[in-house]
Write a structure and sequence with these properties.
Strand content of chain B: 15-25%
Distance between the termini of chain B: 31 Å
CATH class of chain A: Mainly Beta
CATH topology of chain A: Immunoglobulin-like
Strand content of chain A: over 45%
Number of helices of chain A: 1
Structural class of chain B: alpha+beta
CATH architecture of chain A: Sandwich
CATH superfamily of chain A: Periplasmic metal-binding protein Tp34-type
Shape of chain A: globular
Largest sheet of chain A: 14 strands, mixed
Order of helices and strands of chain A: EEEEEHEEEEEEEEEEE
Oligomer: heterodimer
Radius of gyration of chain B: 21 Å
Largest sheet of chain B: 6 strands, mixed
Largest interface: A-B, 38 and 38 residues
Distance between the termini of chain A: 54 Å
Number of helices of chain B: 15
Number of strands of chain A: 16
Chain lengths: 226, 423
Amino acid sequence: MSRPIVCFGRRVGAIALVVVLVAGCASANKTSSMASSGSAGSGKTASGSGSMPGMSMGGSSVSPAMAANMNTKGISVGGLHPIPTQLLASTDWQGMRIEAYATTAVPFIVFTGTSMQMVKPTKQTSFHLMVSLTDASTGVAIPYSTVWATIKRAGKVVYDERQYPMISRYMGPHYGNDVTVPGSGTYELSLLVSPPVSARHIEYQNVWMAPHQADFTFHWKQPAGM
Amino acid sequence: MSGADDSKLTRRQLVSGAGALVAGGALGVAGCGSASPARPIPHVELGSQPSGLPARQHAWSATLPVDEFGNAVVPKYDRLLFFDVDGKPGLASVGLLEAALRTLERRFRWGPDGLLFTAGWGPDYFEHVLGVISPIPKAKALSDFELPTVDRYHLCLHLACDNERALSDIEGALVHGESLPGADGPLDISPALRWRETRTGFVGAGLPHAHQNVSGIPPGDPVPGGSPLFMGFKSGFAKNQATEDDVTIPTGPFADGTTQHVSYMRLRLDSWYQNLSYPERVQRMHSPQTTPDDVAHFTDNPPTHAAQLNQAIRADGVIGHAQTSAQARRNNRPVIIRRDFDTIDGGQAGLHFVAVQRTIEDFVRTRTAMNAASAQLQNPEIGSTVNNGINEFIFVLKRANYILPARAQRAFPLLPGREQTLR
């Protein structure tokens, strides 16, 4: 049975994802507790923290979509093997789960209008940031948003980029970009999540109507050799 | 009133503008809530005004030199000083501020080789100090991908000239009562106005190149030597600005005035310079129909290709900043005058976007056009911050609106009884 669709005066075209990960990012790490929390609301909320091996985390967890792929062994994409992915931070906003993952930096392709461009990590790239927006109750990915990530250390901005809308075999639709931070340490991560620009089924009629900022703290331990 | 930041600079850092710029920028902010003990406001002589000064504070254009194509060459250095009114203002407050501004007018010739300045008043001055309806709205976020702090300062002084040291000296005199060489009248406004924040910057060929070793600019000195702004392109072409007549309020208590929007945005130019070729940067700054050869031959009226926006959306999958912003034109002219300048405040590449326009709505229309939020509904390859002009390279941190009264009304506008003080 079809459900009514709410349209906010905006007509949506086809799939809006413009970036494709060349390498997948499944994780072999199993779940554990997450030390982050958040609250629904508007404006700036949420405070969570996480860390990861390679990033010195106390624990990590993965999304349902990722979990479904975790047990896959021996998969490679473009000659690269699945890359450990850990949860960096997580919070909820009006029923949207906002999760930030860090993975080993990977190349990805960006469509620049009429052409494609490969973005390759450099030797200095610290990790690939993946921001997942999902319905907190169903785990279904929420596309058509805009995510801007700002990372500070001791109050100084060290990374400040919008995240590309992106798809990958292991994460599905998400938002991501490669990140360079200046070495091991404690960092503050802010994610500015914009209202998804799309028609909406009626259950989403009154949520995510204004930009929302989620703030976290994470610990990064630079892997040996970087 | 609250400002944007609680970070503090020492007074020495604050007044050493030239050194601060070179050393990584000065984003001076006074502590919030540091109510100073009430000081008696001295009654000072107003002093004379040089003859021939324009009635409009924002009348800068006639003083500016022009290049071979008639494009104005704007002042090289800018400084924004923000204040709150200390306590309940009286007529002595009016006299103190007006006398200080007249001292500056006598000390410096009106022009970039001397000094240009404006005094702008924010909504909180009208609503909370005077208790009247503000003639301008409070600023707000102007896109879905920004969540700026809205400044609530009462007064914004915008100073501009070609002599950076002079701006530093003027600030020291206005805020700290330091002596200003050559000045012959009162300058210290601190008894009436509590300084809250200073923002500094520069614009002009060579200056961004010389200041590019900061966060936000990738290594390798990518900013071209001749560029007036960090992004490597020129702006403010003669016919790509509103005229001062266009932006002037024609009637009412603020006749001969204008409105001002002041925002602060971080620039993140790593991918701008590292992932995009020069032709691709041309596309994003101007339009996909614009070529590098076109840019090399711009004179005073670069084509915006505004009429080809839909074609760009559908066929090119990328749209240009000038192309989208031009959708807000009136009679084929922009409705704002840009008086923006780059900054390295806080050791961070940024832009202080100052614009004057007849109404704040004119600015909002221009910024909304620049967002081109509906483009992705025609072509999903163009998101709010993907393949969409320069939106992905600027991150708005602060916004504020002010009104710039006519010169005769610039000191505490609408304060009852002010006219008799100024007779």
